[in-house]
Amino acid sequence: MASSWVSPTTRTDLIEDLVSGVDRYNPSNVGILEDYLYHQIRSQEYDCLANLAILKLYQFNPDLYNPDVVINILIKALTASPLPDFNLCISLLDERPINATLDEPDPLPSLLPTLKHLSDLLYRCRFPAFWETYQSDALENLRDNYTVECVGFEDSVREVAIRAVTATFTRISADRLASYLDLNGADLAAYVDKKGWKMEGSVVTIPPNPDNQIEATVVQENIKLAQLTKLISHGANM
Amino acid sequence: MATPRARWAAEADVDEDLQEMEYVQNGQVYDDTLFQQPIDEATLIAMQQAMAQQAAFAQIPDVVKGFIVHFHQAVLDNNLAEITVAYESGWNKYTEKFYSRTEWPEAEIIAPLVNDDPIFLILYRELYYRHVYSRLQPNVDDRFHSYENSCELFNYLLNSEGPVQLELPEQWLWDIIDEFIYQFQVFCTWRSKVKSKTEDELSMLADGGPVWSSYSVLNVLYSLIQKSKINEYIAAHQAGKTAEEIAEIVGEYGSRPIYRHLGYFSIIGLLRVHVLLGDFTLALKVMENVELNQKSPYTRVTACTVATYYYVGFCYIMLRRYPDAIRTFVSILNWIMRMRQYHTRSYQYDQISKTGDRMYALFAICNALSPSRLDDNIANISKERYGEQFAKMVRGQEDAIPAFKELFLYACPKFINANSPPYDDPAALNALLVPGSPDPSSPDSADSSDPAHRHLSLLLSDVVAQSSVPTLRSFLKLYTSLGAKKLANFLDADEEDMVQQLMVMKQASRSVTHVTGGKGLLDGETASTSDLNFVIDENMVHIAESTMGRRYAGWFIKNTERTQKLLDDLKNQPLPAAPKAGVAVPVAPVVAEPARTGGPKVAWGGVKVAA
C-alpha cells in the first residue's frame, strides 16, 4: 500500500496515536474516531486505517455499535477500489445477534447486500451497470440518507473509473468514457479538460503513463555479487 | 540424582504407608475423638482428600517422580541445558510411556515433590493443560483453569517486584505464547457453538466474564511487548547500537532473555490473534519493526519462523497482494526444505510440515490468481500436491470456485468470533437456538456465523471478478494486435462487456508489492505483475509479452560449489593407511553426493521448459 494509504498526510497526530498505539483499544476514544470519519465525509479526505480502528472497537465492544457509522465507513471504502479496503471492512464485521437495544431498526442488514453488490460492480469495472444500479429507485434510501452526505461521492466513483481507463487505454471513445463516468456533453468535456486529457472529435486521448505504455522485453538474469561470495572466497583460500 | 531417588524409594511402598496412616486414624478415632466430639464433616472431607491424594501420589511411577524432581531442580538452577532436555525429551518420553491417554498427575499431587514451589507448579500446569488439549478432550473446567493458570504465569512475570530470575529455553517460551493463543482460539470456537452445551457449561459461560476474552488476551501480549521494550530493542539492534547502549535502552526487563524472547514471541502472537479476528492490516502493522528475513536470531525457534511467514503470507492474500504472498511462502518453504534434515528430529516436526502443506495450498491459490515464475521448484511441488485443484483454478470456469473453496478452507487460519454468544441473556440465547430464527440471510445463515466463510466469500468474489482473465490471456497471447470486435467474437461475448473484462485483467496484473527498503510490511508500491501486457487504443488491442531469458547462473553456481566441497572433502581425507581402507573411505562421499542433487535437476528442467 502506498505510504499515503498507510498514513495519509491529512491524518492528525492525535489520530496517528490512536491508529498506531494501544489507545486504539480504549472504547472511550471511539467518539474521536467517529468525528474524524464525519470530517472525512465532509472534506473528501480518506483514512482507511483510522476507519478500521472504529470497526475494531465495535468488534470488541458490541454496545458501541452504530450502524450509520458502519455504513459511512463502507461508502468511503467503496471508492478505494481496486484496493481491498471494502473487503477489509467486511472482514471486521462480526456476526452480531439482532440488537434489541437500538432505538430504531438496524439499517445495516438490509443495506449490506446492496453495498456489497456496488463494490463488486466497481471491482469488476462494470461502470455503466454501477451507475444504473446506483440511480435505481431501489437505492433511494442509500442515496437520500447516506451518499448525499458524503461530499464528492460520485466524483470518487468516477476516479475509480478514471484509474481503470488510465491504465488500460491510450485512446477511448467519448461515448464509452461518458458511460463509465455518467457524464454527457459539456459535463464530460469539462471533466476531461479538468483531467488535462484531450478530446478530439469523439475520441479522448489518455496521456502516456507507465501502465498504458507497453513494450515487449526479454528479462535477462542478473547475477549479484552476493551469490558468488562462496566461490570467490573459496578461490582465495586455495 | 542419587539423593532424591533415595527419597522416593522410601515413599514408593505405597500400601504400607497407607495402611499405617489408616491405622493411626483408626487409633485416633477410638482413643479420644469418638468420645469427645464427632468429627465434623469438613475435617472428614479433608482427610479423605488427603488420602485420595496420597493414593494418587502413590500411583505415580518412580521414574516420573524422579523426572519431576530433576526437572524442578533444573528450573531452580536456571540450568537451560537441563531444562531443555527435560522439556523437549523427558516430558514427551514419559507422556508416551505413561500418559498417552490420561492426564499427567495433577499439580497438587506432585506438589510435595517440589516443596510446593508455586512457580514450578505453574509451569507444570502449563505442560499439564497443554497435554490435555493436545492428547485428550479438555472439559469446561480444564478450559477455565488453563486460562487461570496462564494468567498466574503472566502475572508472575509482569507484576513481580522487578524482573524475575527465571530462565527458560526459547523453545518453551515460544510454546507458552503459542499455546496461550491456541487455547484462546479453541475456547472461542467451542464457545460459539451454542448447541449441545450442558447446564454446567452454560452457567459457567454465563458467569465467564473476562475468561479468554479478546481484551484479556491482547492485554497479555501487549503488556509483554511493552515490558520487554522489544520494539525498541529491535530498532536499536537495526541501528547498530552497541550492547551497552541497547541495555540502556531496553532497561532491566528487556536485558533479560526471558522478557526479550517473550516480547518478540508476543509480537508474532499478536500477528496471529489479529489474523484470527480478521484484522489483516493491524496484523501486519504490529510487525512494523520486525525484519522478515531468515538471519533473525529467532529462526532458532523453527515453529515461530514458520508461523510468522504463514500468517504474514495469509494477510497479503487478504490484501490482494498475491505477489507478496507468493514471495513470503516461497522463502519459507525453501527454508523448511533446507532445514528438514535438522527438524525431523524435533517434536514439532508434524506441526511444521502440516503448516508447510497448507502454505503449498495457499501458494497454489496465489499462483492461480497471479501467475508467477518466482520459484519453479516450489511451484512444481505445489502442483504435485494440489495439481487437480490448481488445474481447475487456472481454467477459471465454474468448477474453479469449488477448488478455491476447498483449498482456502483447508489452508486458512482457524478464524474466531471476537464475542461470545449471549450466554448471559437466556432469552437472546434461546432465540439463537430456535431453528429458522428470523435471520434475513437464511440460506447462508449456517455459513455466515462461521467467520471462515465470511472471509472465504470475500476471496471468492474476487475470484469470480477475475474469472474471465485466463481465457482472455490465452487469446491475447496469440496476437500482437487485434480488434476488440474480433476478440469479442472469438469469446462469443458482447464487445463492451469484454472491454470491461479487459480493464479487470489490467487491474489484476497490477498489485501493490513490497519494495526493498520500504518501511514495515504494509508499505509498498504498485507494480506490474504479469508477463503479458496490453493496451487498448480506441477499438484496437495491442499486446506485448515479456519473456524470461534462459537462466544459467544458479545452476552453475550450485554445481561449482558442490564440486569445490567435494574437492575439499577429498583433500581432507586422511591418507590411506592400508590400501583396503583407502579404497573404501573416499568413495563414500562421492556416492552420497548425488542424493542431494535431486533438487537442482528439477529446477534446471523447469527453466528449460520456460525458455
UniProtKB/TrEMBL annotation, chain A:
GO BP, sorted A to Z: formation of cytoplasmic translation initiation complex; regulation of translational initiation
Compartment(s): Cytoplasm
Superkingdom of the organism of origin: Eukaryota
Chief place where the protein resides: cytoplasm
The keyword Heme belongs to this UniProt entry's keyword annotation: no
Keyword Cytoplasm: yes
Function as written in the Swiss-Prot or TrEMBL entry: Component of the eukaryotic translation initiation factor 3 (eIF-3) complex, which is involved in protein synthesis of a specialized repertoire of mRNAs and, together with other initiation factors, stimulates binding of mRNA and methionyl-tRNAi to the 40S ribosome. The eIF-3 complex specifically targets and initiates translation of a subset of mRNAs involved in cell proliferation.
Protein's recorded name: Eukaryotic translation initiation factor 3 subunit K
UniProtKB/TrEMBL annotation, chain B:
GO terms, molecular function: translation initiation factor activity
Coiled coil regions, renumbered to chain: none
A single Gene Ontology CC term: eukaryotic translation initiation factor 3 complex
Region (Disordered): 433-452
Subunit structure: Component of the eukaryotic translation initiation factor 3 (eIF-3) complex.
Function, as annotated: Component of the eukaryotic translation initiation factor 3 (eIF-3) complex, which is involved in protein synthesis of a specialized repertoire of mRNAs and, together with other initiation factors, stimulates binding of mRNA and methionyl-tRNAi to the 40S ribosome. The eIF-3 complex specifically targets and initiates translation of a subset of mRNAs involved in cell proliferation.
Protein name: Eukaryotic translation initiation factor 3 subunit L
UniProt organism field: Roridomyces roridus
Taxonomic path: Eukaryota, Fungi, Dikarya, Basidiomycota, Agaricomycotina
